[in-house]
Structure formats: C-alpha cells, structure tokens
Q: What sequence folds into this?
C-alpha cells in the first residue's frame, strides 16, 4: 500500500476534505472496512469508490502482535487465500473425558493468521488510487461542519491533520463501559510440533474441560490441528483476572503432558491475549461523523469472544449504506435478544450459579451443530432460542432473567492491556 507522511495544514474549517473516509487503525476492523468500501461507490458516481485514508499506528507498541482469528461460514471466504486451515468437525470434551464430536456442515470452521490476512487485503488495496495509508499516532478526533478532523503526530514529530466526511475509529477502548457483569477471556497458546503423530487433523477440540477449574469462571483446552504432528494448543480461562505467564506455561505443560499425553514436543511459536466478555453497551457513535468499529463498536460477542465474523457483517453494512447514500453508521453487531441471552449467561458464570463446564458441554451435546453455530452468530429465530434456553439450568436462569433489569451498571476495573480479538479466536476476534 502506498504510504504518505504528508502533514495537512488548514486554516479554515470550510475548506474541502482530504478524503471521503478516514479509518483509524489497520487491524482486522480497519482493513476489512477499507476492503469493502474500496469495492463500492456512492449514488451518482457509479463505479467511483470513496477515497479512503487508513491511519496505522506509528508507535510499534500500539500494533498488535501476530494473532489468530477463527470463524465459521458456508462456502468459500472472500479471504480464502489467507485461510491457514479449515475443518468440518468439532469436539467438546467434558470434565469426565466424555467427548462429543459433531459435523458442522454446511459450515466450515476456518483459521486465519493476522499477517496473511493483512498482506492479502493490503495487496488488494495497493493498486487503488483512492486508497492511501499514513503512519501516525492519533491524539484527537473532533466533529467539523459536515465532517470530522483527525489530529495526530507523524514521523519526525510532524503534526498530521486529516479531514474527511466520515471517520471510523477501530482503536480498542482504554476503559470498558459500565456493566453489570464482566469476565475476561484470557489465554496463551503454543504452536507445537510433536515427535510422533498426536492429533486428528480433521477435528478441532473446541473446548476440552479436563483442565483444573478456577474458583470463579471456567477453563478449557483448545486444539487446532494442522496435521498429525502440528497444532495450535491453547489454555483458556473465563475468569476475573489474567494469569502470570508462568501460570499459563504451567497450565499448558499440564494439559499437553497429563491430559493429552502427546509426548515430546517442540514449541515453535506462541500467542497470548485478553478479550473482555461483558454486557456493557459499546457506543458505536462518537460524533456526528465519527463512528467506532470492531471491538470498540461492540463487535466482540460477549458470550464467546468471537469477533471476526461480526466485523465482516459490520463492514459490509457500512459499505452498503454508503453506496445507498444513507448515513453509513455501523449497525448493532448482535440483536437485542442475543445480547440479553449473553447477559444472562455471563451473570450465571460470574455468580457461579451454573457449572460452566456442564453448561457448555450440555449445550453442545443436545443442540444440533448447525443451529448452535447460527445461535452463536445471533442468527436463530425466537423459537430456536427458546429451545436452546430450555437446555440450560432453568431455575438459575429464570432467577437471573428476573434480576438483571434491577441491577445497576458499574464501572469496570481497568483492563490489563488492550483487548485482543483473537476474534483470535475466541477462546475469536475469536473461538468460544
């Protein structure tokens, strides 16, 4: 992608805009929106896509490390070239070792590496004259008559001012909004190669509950196999606080040696992240012409941590609204009913009213896989949601449903580090 560090200087707010759209952040949300906007055009200018300026962080510490995003879909992805691996069967293992394996046709569970995704999207944008990227640290975004201005610092300490009709900010929030319930999904994973065949490359272990359970919340192992000897193995917790790196390493050693029994292995890489699981309401609008997208705009599913698929839905909807000539505001990533069900589940887990391992194992065992995946995407009908709800602990659930409207939303303690969408995975941005 062509880079520019040109410093914009304007003396009169009535002057024209530098571009139609400015996108702050070049991660999954920012790049996805640029990708979709570049393939559309406003009414009256048929075939002319909006001009887009993508602002990538100048400070290296603000750029997220290499990470994994997982999602499921029917057919081929528009990012299929960057898909590292995909599977059509999922496994959930209970605390007693009883495993349930299900085919998920017509869906496939897919894995992307952030570097491959970024390279693919940037390559597609690089030849488009209406798209450019700048490197700068953004300090402020403010409304202007008919648009907005982004103020930042570019290389060499130079001031950068960009004006656009619309601004989309994908930077994770420094503080989470007020909430009734908040847990953190935190994890560490190893990319491993074993000395002997140890994995079934056709099946993802989505949740393996044969891990020591924390006093509050739950934990599980997660295995994405790439071949008989290669896999990503993660230890994940839903709990109030992250662990030390030493504690994650100890948990992974226990899981690979004692639970999986896979013998000698070589750790070839690792990933680690923290995803907020909260019933907080993330405001998607920050000004007349300023919007939040991605995790900052509520795209992370509170009950699972998956983000990537919601980011794509959000980006397509924004591009479609732009092309129609409507206000291109990001839509709610999930329906009010889905968010209400997430709030109930989080409260159940947070207060220990349900055994999380039995909750998820039972849900996977008794619900058809295709319907469960649609449920996790917020794409089920009311009757299907009721049928799924009847498979949960009824009495604690009804108590929680009754009390939620009466509970105040409180300030959430500062999150340790920036939220990671590993939509990675979620256990995404992006597994459950």
A:
């Amino acid at each position: 992608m062509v880079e520019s560090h040109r410093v914009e200087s304007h003396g009169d707010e009535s002057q024209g805009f530098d571009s139609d759209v400015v996108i702050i952040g070049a991660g999954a949300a920012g790049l996805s929106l640029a990708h979709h906007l570049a393939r559309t055009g406003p009414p009256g200018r048929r075939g002319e896509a909006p001009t887009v300026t993508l602002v990538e962080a100048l400070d290296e510490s603000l750029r997220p490390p290499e990470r994994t995003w997982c999602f499921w879909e029917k057919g081929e992805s528009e990012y299929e070239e960057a898909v590292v691996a995909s599977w059509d069967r999922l496994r959930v293992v209970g605390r007693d070792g009883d495993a349930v394996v299900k085919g998920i046709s017509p869906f496939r569970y897919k894995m992307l590496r952030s570097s491959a995704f970024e390279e693919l999207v940037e390559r597609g944008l690089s030849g488009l004259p209406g798209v450019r990227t700048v490197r700068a640290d953004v300090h402020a975004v403010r409304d202007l008559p008919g648009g907005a201005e982004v103020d930042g610092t570019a290389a060499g300490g130079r001031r950068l001012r960009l004006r656009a009709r619309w601004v989309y900010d994908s930077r994770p929030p420094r503080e989470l909004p007020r909430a009734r319930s908040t847990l953190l999904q935190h994890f560490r994973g190893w990319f491993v190669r074993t000395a002997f065949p140890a994995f079934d490359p056709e099946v993802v272990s989505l949740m393996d509950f044969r891990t020591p359970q924390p006093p509050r919340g739950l934990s599980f192992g997660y295995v994405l196999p790439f071949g008989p000897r290669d896999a990503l193995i993660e230890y994940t917790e839903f709990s109030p606080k992250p662990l030390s790196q030493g504690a994650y390493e100890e948990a992974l050693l226990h899981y690979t040696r004692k639970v999986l029994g896979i013998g000698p292995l070589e750790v070839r890489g690792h990933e680690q992240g923290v995803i907020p699981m909260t019933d907080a309401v993330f405001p998607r609008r920050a000004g007349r012409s300023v919007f939040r997208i991605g995790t900052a705009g509520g795209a992370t599913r509170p009950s699972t941590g998956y983000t990537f698929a919601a980011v794509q839905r959000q980006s397509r909807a924004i591009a479609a609204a732009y092309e129609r000539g409507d206000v291109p505001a990001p839509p709610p990533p999930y329906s009010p009913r889905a968010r209400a069900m997430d709030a109930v589940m989080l409260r159940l887990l947070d207060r220990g009213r349900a055994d999380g391992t039995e909750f998820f194992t039972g849900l996977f065992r008794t619900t058809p896989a295709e319907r469960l995946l649609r449920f996790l995407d917020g794409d089920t009908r009311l009757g299907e949601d009721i049928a799924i709800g009847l498979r949960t602990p009824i009495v604690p659930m009804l108590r929680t449903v009754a009390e939620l409207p009466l509970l105040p939303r409180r300030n959430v303690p500062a999150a340790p580090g920036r939220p990671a969408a590993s939509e990675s995975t979620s256990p995404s941005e992006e597994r459950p």
Observations:
- The first helix runs from residue 28 to 37.
